[in-house]
């Protein structure tokens, strides 16, 4: 019986040790990918206007867009933003979706939610998607938009084709922040 107790006690010690190692490894893995953080400051009126999609993580709601994707932001009197997304399909036809963005109460104006569902559905939380500006150059010519899970990413430029050096620098910052850039798809102008 004493032998059995020693084995059980030894097995328990091994199990505890393995659990501690697993928890430690999980904590290090979680620390390896920093949380998504929005830009600390945003001049909302300066952000308004036309932005061209330079690249994105592919997503189902833009599957019809073949080229020329852009977003136009216009500040409304009520503080919300009208968002007009446009693109060209492969057949040359044009797509357009009009929505709205709103601040979500974060201390940063770079944390927004956007919806393209009809206004009468705006009371439903699931029609609003996260829109976090996670990178923005000082000149407001190149930006990255994402959300807390890094499921979506858009790189936006004030010109149809961004400055190559600025674009590469932005990619480097996004990689350092834990974005999987192998998922990135360059958008056709």
From TrEMBL:
One of its GO terms (molecular function) is lipid binding. Residues 1-29 form the signal peptide. The keyword Membrane applies. Keywords: Cell outer membrane, Lipid-binding, Lipoprotein, Membrane, Signal. Residues 42-187 form the Lipocalin/cytosolic fatty-acid binding domain. GO terms for cellular component: cell outer membrane. GO terms for biological process: response to stress. It is found in: Cell outer membrane. InterPro entries: Calycin (IPR012674), Lipocalin_ApoD (IPR022271), Lipocalin_bac (IPR002446), Lipocalin_Blc-like_dom (IPR047202), Lipocln_cytosolic_FA-bd_dom (IPR000566). It comes from the Bacteria. Homodimer. Belongs to the calycin superfamily. Lipocalin family. Involved in the storage or transport of lipids necessary for membrane maintenance under stressful conditions. Displays a binding preference for lysophospholipids. PANTHER family: APOLIPOPROTEIN D. This is Outer membrane lipoprotein Blc. It comes from Novispirillum itersonii (Aquaspirillum itersonii).
């Amino acid at each position: 019986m004493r032998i059995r107790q020693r084995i059980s006690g030894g097995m328990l010690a091994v199990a505890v040790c393995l659990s501690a190692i697993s928890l430690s490894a999980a904590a290090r893995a979680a620390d390896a990918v920093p949380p998504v953080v929005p830009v600390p400051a945003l001049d909302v009126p300066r952000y308004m206007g036309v932005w061209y999609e330079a690249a994105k993580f592919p997503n189902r709601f833009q599957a019809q867009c073949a080229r020329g994707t852009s977003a136009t932001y216009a500040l409304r009197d009520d503080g919300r933003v009208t968002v007009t997304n446009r693109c060209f399909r492969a057949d040359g036809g044009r797509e357009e979706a009009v929505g709205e963005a709103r601040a979500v109460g974060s201390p940063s104006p770079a944390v927004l939610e956007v919806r393209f569902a009809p206004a009468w559905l705006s009371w439903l939380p699931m029609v609003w998607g996260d829109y976090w500006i996670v990178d923005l150059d000082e000149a407001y010519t190149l930006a990255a938009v994402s959300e807390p899970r890094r499921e979506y990413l858009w790189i936006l430029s004030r010109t149809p084709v961004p400055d190559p050096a600025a674009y590469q620098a932005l990619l480097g910052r996004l990689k350092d922040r834990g974005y999987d850039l192998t998922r990135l798809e360059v958008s056709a102008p």
